[in-house]
Amino acid sequence: MQNHIAAIHGGLDLLFMERLHKLPPRWRFPVKSELNKLVCELEGREPDIGPQLLKSDPEAVRKYSIVLERINRMFAQLDGAMPSMSSFDQFCANNDFRIMRRKWDADSDIIQCVESVWVELDRLLNFPRRHYFDDSTFDMLRATYRWLERNSVGENPWQDTAIRQESWENSAYQEPVECSICREYLEAVHQKTLYCGHQFHEHCIDQWEMYAESCPCCRSELQ
């Protein structure tokens, strides 16, 4: 019996795993989860959830600081875009991002949280009717999706040591090419640097400070 199960397992791996990786995230992870459940059921064991990398674990947060900062920055930019939207568009946006934000804010496995955000971004970007964000915000969401996709491969996806990124993304203290609020290029004469090292257009961060008390990139307290 065990030999038959092993043969089925091997067949599933051969048939699906290579193709599974090519599926968009909104299909890939649900199918992968169901496949894992099926294999575990055939083998008579509980599903393998793997090692837990909790957000409450400082060591795990240190290893995944870049992806954590990237997604936190995305949510901060979305918050910054809300005031310029109509009430109806704000309602639609809040509905679309409620599940994503709730999963991201949960004290759960970092990889699962990143996958959840990636899945929701995939769904959002593939529904053209959702056009309530301006072009710069939509481009930011698409850039975040592509960044997650680019760094999802390898043995340690999204871990700092495996991140493939632009040179300016290596440190908060290096000058970014864009203001993280408006996504326009920074000009030295009009930029403002916070105590945490992140830089923005002066008028963008001044307006941000009217609604928030933390840096839109790293959530450090504004001083």
Automatic annotation (TrEMBL):
EC number from the UniProt entry: 2.3.2.27
Pfam name, any one: zf-RING_2
Top-level lineage group: Eukaryota
GO cellular component, as recorded: membrane
Membrane-traversing stretches: none
GO terms (BP aspect): protein ubiquitination; ubiquitin-dependent protein catabolic process
One term of GO molecular function: zinc ion binding
Top class in the EC scheme: transferase
Compartment(s): Membrane
Keywords assigned: Membrane, Metal-binding, Transferase, Transmembrane, Transmembrane helix, Ubl conjugation pathway, Zinc, Zinc-finger
Membrane topology field: Multi-pass membrane protein
Domain RING-type: 179-219
Catalytic reaction list: S-ubiquitinyl-[E2 ubiquitin-conjugating enzyme]-L-cysteine + [acceptor protein]-L-lysine = [E2 ubiquitin-conjugating enzyme]-L-cysteine + N(6)-ubiquitinyl-[acceptor protein]-L-lysine
PANTHER family: RING-TYPE DOMAIN-CONTAINING PROTEIN, TARGET OF ERK KINASE MPK-1
Protein name per UniProt: RING-type E3 ubiquitin transferase
